[in-house]
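Record type: monomer structure entry
Structure origin: computed from sequence
Chain ID: A
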Amino acid sequence: MKKALVISGGGSKGAFGGGVAQYLMKNEQKDYDIFIGTSTGSLMVSHLALGKLDSLKKIYTNVNQKTIFSNNPFKIKKVAGEKVVSIRHLNTLWNFLNGRKTFGESKNLRNLIKNNISEEMYHEIRANNKEVVVTVSNLTKNQIEYKSIKDCNYGDFCDWIWGSCNYVPFMSLLEKDNCQYADGGFGSLVPIREAILRGATEIDAIILETEVTQFNKLPAKNPFSLLFDVFEFMLRHVESHNITIGKLAANNKNIKLNLYYTPTVLTTNSLVFDKVLMRKWWKSGYKYAKSKREKLMSEFRPDALTDQEIEEFAEK
């Protein structure tokens, strides 16, 4: 029996996923053998594998734009009380003049990873025989790659985490081993199938998006926002495809699959890191996981069912 925790991409919405994971691991005492993350999920899996939930919460509830971007392509301003995102033309121009391939640079995120995922943590995870996997998109070979902590050294592992998080062309491009790598979500936003291929028999998947589309986007006002909308559109359909394939694979192999979506739309731009909102989302994730569990338990009377019926109901 192998249990896996899968966390999708979602930028700043990862704070919500952290709250869900906290409830599952602390309150439900879930002990996972496999941790697989994409993008923001890849930032979380090392701490989760060691049960360092408090440290992870501190990271996710204290970051801001400067923590992530060394050259921030976004300008955030308030219009009628709402945050509106537009392009920082000078920052973007600076990148182009310096021969960079992206609008912005996320080198500060690379430093954040190295400062918070230590070499000692790397060795401890390997010693505990936990399988920690991050997803990257190899743009050069046009394929998805899954990088296990068991197959790479500490420096490479930090690089793959960084590469998995780099939402190009807004963030840095990872150039490694004569290939160019970008956000793992471009190909596998919710890597449920990979967890199954690695032997998982029970999977909890945290999906940092609502189950159904809950609003229509406002029309794009400039090429920058249009490009972002196009990426969001593609990723939404990649996510849907990943989940469908994952469900089919789980049903075919009789694997228990639990899906945890965000119940409401958290943000329309997940590359905006607001620590006040992220603290709120962490609490929301915890409360959501708790309420989902309580709802499951309230829908039946255990004393009126046989042990087999209870087990069958819990697997739904």
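Annotation 1: The chain has a mean pLDDT of 90.
Annotation 2: The two ends are 18 Å apart (CA to CA).
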